[in-house]
Protein: Gfo/Idh/MocA-like oxidoreductase N-terminal domain-containing protein
Amino acid sequence: MAETPIRFGILGCAHIAQTVSRAICLSPNSTLYAVGSRSFEKAKKFSEANGFPPSAKIYGSYEALLDDPDVDVVYVPLPTSLHLRWVVLAAEKKKHVLLEKPVALNVAELDEMIKACEVNGVQFMDGTMWMHHPRTTKMEEIIYDPERFGNIKTVHSIFSYGGGDDFLRNNIRVKPDLDGLGALGDAGWYCIRAILWAAEYELPKTVTALREPVLNEAGVILACGSSLQWEDGKTATFHCSFLANLAMDITVLGTTGTLHVHDFVIPHEENTASFLAAAKTGYWELVTGMSAIPSQHVITTDLPQEVYMVTEFSRLVKSIKDGGSKPEGKWPSISRKTQLVVDAVKASIENGFEPVQVRV
Structure:
């Protein structure tokens, strides 16, 4: 007898919800059960445009979707300024929460959301999709192996994309009342997560924002960067931008290993992802070439990375719903650490680019 799939409700009709709704349909343990918007017509058009199953319920308000007792999970792709209200309400309605990033405007808001989820026994996870790609697991096998990679010494990350004139005028990511963190919260979230991932989620001691960030007239960050420092001497830097051509790079340097990945946010091809790794690389004696040159690792998958995310989230929810398990604490912890660094970078910018201690 087939198991009952986890029933997803989508709270809002954001562009990213198109990608995640497809993932829900492709996931073997999930089903697209409902969509809710501020108007019934908008929700209906979104459902039709994205091939929702005929059985999917359409709601003309967020509240109506949350009141449906058959919704197990809500995916929340709303503007960041709305996350606190709707995540807390969803948790109080006993809905598990898959939340788009950035998860909050600051860690105080996130703590309220996490607390609501803990009190109500529901799973929380943010929607950083690349974390669930099989390539990420393979890269961890290399950089987390001290015999192969040595000790991590520095990490560098870049995520940039050219938003274009219309984006820079009208997108929610440049509106202070909707997504006030701008490029730091959007692209910078990925860079910071990549750095923490490479550091096995050890928080840095201090964060120092780089000078001359670019802000729009409303004071929202369009491009910025930062350096991070750890007590053991590790360092990291990142740059995020809405103003430069697309780049999605991670470089991790260990004492005996190097890793490069050039499409970490979204693989260049949906079913194939690669990275370069090398160990104990050096020059020939006459500097005519390199020994132990980087090797390319290619990971082929049957499903897009967002499907792996939805499937993992549904597995956790299933174990809580049917198996009596407690929510997995790993994911809210990682979200919180990422938010702490985002907050520290923002504070450093506001404090004249002085170092800011990252406080747990």
